[in-house]
UniProtKB/TrEMBL annotation:
Originating organism: Francisella persica ATCC VR-331
InterPro entries xref list: Bact_OuterMem_StrucFunc, OmpA-like, OmpA-like_sf
GO CC annotations on file: membrane
Protein name: Membrane protein
Keyword annotations from UniProtKB, A to Z: Membrane, Signal
Domain OmpA-like, first and last residues per copy: 58-185
Signal peptide: 1-19
Lineage: Bacteria, Pseudomonadati, Pseudomonadota, Gammaproteobacteria, Thiotrichales
CDD domains, per the entry: OmpA_C-like (cd07185)
Length: 418
């Protein structure tokens, strides 16, 4: 009876463990929408780090995406930081349809005073490095990657150390799994980046759109036009208007822009989009309101529209556009002025990445069509133009197309690095 009871307890414990593993596996499954991760450049410090990382390694031709997952000594368990890096890698793999790559497992070489048989030590390191590579593959598969897509496992033991195996800290750097992916080649990729010329944004201001992006904190500086001295619903130049907020008489509040009602861009964040209707100058304040005089109108404005200090929404442009070191990839959501049409040179496009993702005003972006499939066969990505970012909020940005080889649609993509 006691034996039977013990057996039942063992079976119950085993079943519980399996259930926990199943729940963990389900938790790792990717059920949400994916966005391209921001990838930092590979630096010497990063490559010698004892923490997991994913980065872009620049070279002649297509760049490499380097992923390095670290492990504790004698362990093949993934820690939380390693999983965060693998989540970025998974998003990149799924969104670029990269299917063939090798997972290389390594271990730090350890000398044992007790065990002198080098073959046993070597076999142990090979098993450990293989288990590490398999664990990384399992994690990606549980996220939703197809294991039959062409993943190769290599167990390399203590071969190819990236740090001397002469100390605990150095061996920690070697306790790793490496994955190298060649950035998907784009048609006409040869010398594209070398032929992209830096431009002076000031020379393109006349092409900038009347659309502005606002962060949640900037909305506190927006006020509503509730009346005019002329008592007319449609406003004109030199009209005296009254806004329902008292602004200070500071120098940076001398100039205002008249804007449309702030509208959300997406339900997932608080960023808003507005249209610039004209400009106004500060006159005076009175009992919680501000009086202004309209100095210019580019679109029809009326009582019920809004104003905001110009300095709140104006973003300083660099003297010259620049290439970012970080790889930021974004979807093109729309042409900001003609949302139902195609975009071309000197049009402005809305991107679904902003300041929080690493974009910077003045950053150059390369426009391309992602890989597609026809009759089951892949059609490679294609370079279609370039431009630069001139406005941004936390989660969105507006880029001006400097040159386009064809019409640019909402199916196109933008990236800072090929």
């Amino acid at each position: 009876m006691k034996k039977l009871l013990k057996l039942c307890l063992v079976v119950s414990l085993f079943t519980t463990l399996l259930a926990c593993q199943t729940l963990d596996g389900d938790k790792d499954k990717n059920n949400g929408s994916l966005t391209f991760p921001t990838l930092e450049p590979c630096t010497a410090e990063l490559l010698q780090s004892s923490k997991s990382f994913i980065c872009v390694k620049e070279q002649t031709g297509p760049n490499l995406i380097e992923t390095n997952i670290k492990f504790e000594a004698d362990s093949y368990t993934l820690n939380a930081q390693a999983k965060e890096v693998l989540n970025k890698l998974f998003a990149y793999l799924k969104l670029t349809d990269a299917t063939r790559f090798t997972i290389r497992g390594y271990a730090g070489k350890v000398e044992s005073k007790i065990l002198t048989d080098q073959k046993i030590l070597t076999d142990y390191n090979i098993r450990l490095s293989k288990n590490r590579a398999i664990n990384v593959e399992d994690y990606l598969v549980n996220k939703g990657l197809n294991s039959s897509d062409g993943i190769t496992i290599k167990a390399l033991g203590y071969q190819d150390p990236i740090a001397p195996n002469d100390s605990t800290s150095s061996r920690a750097i070697n306790q790793r799994v490496e994955i190298t992916i060649k950035n998907r080649a784009i048609e006409q990729i040869d010398n594209i980046e070398n032929h992209l010329e830096h431009v002076k944004p000031a020379e393109y201001i006349k092409f900038f759109s009347n659309v502005y992006l606002l962060n949640d904190d900037q909305l506190n500086n927006v006020s509503r036009i509730y009346d005019s001295r002329e008592k007319r619903p449609i406003l004109g130049i030199n009209f005296k208007i009254f806004a329902d907020k008292q602004y200070t008489a500071a120098k940076d509040n001398n100039n205002f822009i008249i804007i449309s009602e702030p509208k959300p861009i997406s339900a997932f964040n608080a960023d808003k989009k507005v249209y610039r209707l004209g400009t106004a100058k500060y006159d005076y304040t009175f009992k919680g309101i501000t009086a202004m005089t309209i100095s210019n109108l580019t679109r029809e404005a009326s009582v019920g529209d809004y104003v905001i200090p110009n300095d709140i929404v104006s973003q300083k442009l660099p003297e010259q556009t620049f290439k970012m070191k970080s790889k930021v990839t974004a979807n093109i959501l729309e042409d900001v002025m003609n949302t139902n049409t195609f975009s071309s040179s000197y049009n402005s496009i809305l991107l679904n990445k902003g300041e929080a993702d690493g974009f910077k005003v003045g950053a150059e972006v390369i426009l391309y069509e992602p890989e597609t499939r026809t009759d089951g066969f892949p059609v490679p990505p294609k370079y279609i133009g370039y431009g630069f970012v001139y406005r941004e909020s936390q989660h969105y940005s507006i880029a001006l197309i400097i040159n386009s080889l064809q019409e640019i649609t909402s199916n196109s993509m933008a990236t800072t690095i090929l």
